[in-house]
């Protein structure tokens, strides 16, 4: 590790410690430095040794089988912003990426601000942008042992809802999908548990939800659902890595399933922990309806020790 990287990592740890000393902190404006520091979270990392990989190593003198440790941990692939006013992404440095356009101008919701109102539609824009903390995170994760790379590229726009107008603002064609028409299918939360936050389909910006935080979380889940799949009827770039010998990347994101991905709140409060939606943690309502989470995804890998990968064995 270079001296400059060690210095950057040390400053990042100090910043995170000061911000998260009490578990979470109100964040009025989200900037890149805060996003980078948030990647230094052992809870979200969840580093584990899960098995052994076997490699065939050959030289002129013959061949032998070598082993390496198989590890699994989460990687902050992207920052997912869910916000009411078009062009006002809470992450200030990337705000210009999703400026209002001819087809995407307004925002907000249909509320009249009555406390008992729960039948009017809310609207949220959503941006999925590559997490900028990959360098600091890699150094941080390497402190636990061998680490895996993620699929995200820093500052890469994987989905900008202002460019996805037909799908995001008109729900076409997903308005007619079975997932959008069938109660109980692809939902964030549970009807039986009286904790239903919303439907994943149609994966657009509108939904009926009286709680603004829950509405933003559902829209973030929708955006994450789109970018972690290929061939979707949206304007986006897939946030996926290809599997290879000794490397098992994250697959499709599924709601309420931490084994496919989990969320770290960045604003309006900065958290040092990750969770899935729905959760029972304290939910702070953003004054301007703008929220952002880091999307952490699970990866497994092992260090290459030979020319041919023979397979792996996972521990119980």
What would you say this structure looks like, in words?
This protein has 316 residues and is α+β, with helices and mostly antiparallel strands. It has one domain (3-45, 76-130, 153-297). Helices cover 20% and strands 28% of the residues. The chain is built from 7 helices and 14 strands. The strands form 4 sheets. Strands 2, 3, 5, 6, 10, 11, 13 and 14 form an 8-stranded antiparallel β-sheet that branches. A two-stranded antiparallel ribbon has the order 1-12. The radius of gyration is 21 Å and the shape is elongated. The two termini are 34 Å apart. 43% of the residues are buried.
Number of helices: 7
Name the shape in a single word.
Answer: elongated
Q: Total strand count, please? A: 14
Overall structural domain count? 1
Give the oligomeric state: single chain
- Rounded mean pLDDT is 89
**Major β-sheet, in short?**
8 strands, antiparallel
Following the backbone from N to C, one meets helices and strands in this order, namely HEHHEEEEHEHHEEEHEEEEE
Helicity range? 10-25%
In short:
By secondary structure, the protein is of the alpha+beta class. The chain has seven helices and 14 strands.
Features:
20% helix; alpha+beta; 7 helices; two-stranded antiparallel ribbon; elongated; 316 residues
Task: Write the topology of this structure.
Elements: H1 3-19, E1 24-26, H2 32-38, H3 42-45, E2 48-59, E3 62-83, E4 121-123, E5 125-130, H4 134-142, E6 157-160, H5 165-170, H6 178-181, E7 187-188, E8 198-199, E9 206-208, H7 212-227, E10 247-248, E11 262-267, E12 269-271, E13 290-302, E14 308-314
